[in-house]
Design brief:
Length: about 400
């Protein structure tokens, strides 16, 4: 079993050597906690199954580098021994304090990779075990005082440790730990005197939890990235300077032509502006000519007023996309507000009907509104008996 587990660990080391690290991150030293449980085997003189007992361990440690860590903890629970003739198995309890140096083989041989799934490790350390509840004193078939050369009631026993294990990554902070360790203890451990150390082996599984971040931005990577950016900025600056020089040359070569084109464009623009002003003035004059004035208390368009709008109507017919609005008014000097409102409505409607009768599409007249005497477009009272057409 031990050799099989060791072979599996070696295979994981080989895989670890093929892993790639993330260049943007580096290892961050951190504390961790670990709790484990499993089975213990105390070496003795009977079948393997007879000397199995429960085991547990809890520890806290610090990972100094990707490959080296140190943990302090407590382990133990129960050990077992046996009397050969007549056969009898007994148990005893102990708690062992220990310090272990941890060597991560994957990071040591394959380079640091925080995403690695399997992280096999070696451990070596030492400590002391406090034994209590010694069942050897209670064997029933043999006199313990004559059979056991190191019978103890309570004892402190020095211990050395070694082992192998692997961590299986579950997340950035949590991993599943599988471990087999051997503990070399004083000859007194199982109460028998054989003038050589006693051994107990543990097979444990548990969880390891990192306290704090296990990675940080890589300073080397950031420095390289900054150097790369600086080089890119220098190259970009050189390209920009060359482009600017070419642009200035092109500007100097095209300046005379641009000035000539600008002068020609200004001349044409001035001509267009003059033509537009003239057209606007003509339209304004025609619009003023088409302001329809009414006599007091009347909404009838006189023949004289109707004749004024001929040019404007011709312009509307020549520009079919133009839309207009019609606003009717009444003077303040005559009538009441209510009467003047109705009168201005009739005047606006009369002008609309007049334009439709002249062939102007009613859909082009987007608004027909009477303003009563609320608004007086002219200073002279009598001139406010009017309908004004505006182009939208």
């Amino acid at each position: 079993m031990f050799l099989t587990f060791a072979a599996a660990l070696c295979a994981q080391v080989a895989l670890a050597q093929q892993s790639k690290t993330d260049p943007s991150l580096e290892f961050n030293p951190h504390w961790f906690g670990q709790i484990q449980g499993g089975a213990a085997y105390t070496v003795g003189e009977t079948a393997f199954r007879n000397l199995l007992s429960p085991a547990a361990a809890a520890s806290i440690g610090y990972q100094f580098t990707p490959s080296v860590g140190l943990r302090f903890g407590a382990s133990g629970w129960q050990g077992k021994g046996n009397v050969v003739s007549p056969f009898e198995v007994y148990g005893f309890h102990f708690v062992q304090g220990q310090a272990d140096l941890i060597l991560d083989l994957a990071n040591l041989l394959g380079g640091y990779d925080h995403r690695r799934l399997f992280s096999p490790y070696l451990l070596a350390g030492g400590g002391a075990a406090f034994g209590f509840g010694n069942g050897a004193a209670k064997v029933t078939k043999t006199d313990p005082n004559t059979y056991f050369g190191h019978l103890w009631d309570k004892a402190v026993l020095p211990a050395g440790r070694y082992g192998i294990g692997t961590g299986i990554r579950l997340s950035d902070a949590v991993s599943l730990s599988l471990e087999v360790n051997g503990n070399v203890l004083s000859d007194k451990f199982n109460s028998k005197r054989v003038d050589r150390p006693d051994f107990q082996f543990n097979a444990l599984a548990g969880l390891k939890v990192a306290f704090g971040k296990t990675t940080r931005p890589s300073r080397q990577y950031l420095d390289a990235l900054a150097a790369k950016r600086a080089a890119e900025e220098r190259a970009a600056k050189l390209v920009a300077e060359q482009a600017e020089a070419e642009r200035l040359d092109a500007e100097r070569a095209a300046r005379e032509k641009a000035e000539a084109e600008r002068a020609e464009a200004e001349r044409l623009a001035a001509e267009r502006a003059a033509a537009e002003r003239e057209a606007a003035e003509r339209l304004a004059a025609e619009m003023r000519q088409c302001n329809t004035f009414f006599t007091i208390n009347s909404a009838e368009i006189s023949s004289e007023e109707a004749g004024k709008c001929d040019r404007f109507i011709a312009w509307l017919q020549a520009n079919p996309n133009v839309r207009i609005a019609i606003d009717g008014y009444a003077d303040k000097g005559t009538g009441t507000h209510g009467y003047n409102q109705k009168l201005s409505d009739k005047r606006a409607a009369a002008v609309k009907a007049f334009l439709v009768d002249k062939g102007i599409d009613a859909a082009r007249i987007i608004a027909v509104e009477g303003n009563g005497d609320r608004i007086q477009p002219f200073a002279e009272n009598d001139r406010n008996r009017v309908v004004i057409i505006s182009v939208e």
